[in-house]
Amino acid sequence: MSKEKTLFRPAQADEDCIRVRLDRRTIVLIKNMKKFAYWKERYPDACILDPAGTNKE
Q: What are the extents of the domains in the chain?
């Protein structure tokens, strides 16, 4: 009996999601800045790609 594979689906970007680049290949979507502190602790080079209000027309 083999173990079933776990599929990871890409997150759906809401209007209030913040895109964060962890390293040169990895981007995550977060809902609030508390989560950014969590990722910044693990990835010191993490940066915000689109600050609030820049992607709205």
A: 18-48
- For the CA atoms of the chain, what is the radius of gyration? 14
pLDDT tens for the chain, 57 residues: list them.
Answer: 677 777 666 656 677 788 899 999 888 888 888 999 999 999 999 999 866 555 544
- The label of the residue with tokens 């979507």 reads 29
Q: Are 57 and 31 in contact (CB under 8 A)?
A: no
- Write the DSSP assignment of 17-54 as a string of letters: -EEEE-SSS-EEEESSHHHHHHHHHH-TT-EESS-TTS
